[in-house]
Design goal:
single chain, 81 residues, alpha+beta, Nuclear Transport Factor 2, Chain: A, 4-stranded antiparallel beta sheet, elongated
Length: 81
């Protein structure tokens, strides 16, 4: 998983981005894809973008999750140290 995706998964842990309204989702037996709006505040910065989760499923359990921000520049600026 790339660095940006790892940070994306940490949104709920390290920032006040716990308000993630439902978006759209589709799934088959092996994969699920969900689109949601990620909002957060961190170190005086704000994030408000759509993000796509690509989830690999096996035996009904999540095996891998890839978070893809739709605005990579805003995402990187939000997580910059």
């Amino acid at each position: 998983m790339d660095r940006g995706a790892q940070r994306g998964l940490a949104v709920g842990r390290r920032a006040a981005a716990d308000r993630l309204p439902p978006g759209h989702a589709i799934a088959d037996g092996d994969h699920a894809v969900a689109v949601y709006r990620a909002r957060g505040r961190r170190l005086g910065r704000e994030l408000d973008i759509e993000q796509v989760l690509v989830i690999a499923l096996r035996d009904g359990r999540w095996q891998e999750v890839l978070a893809l921000p739709t605005d990579s520049a805003a995402f990187e600026a939000f997580w910059a140290e």
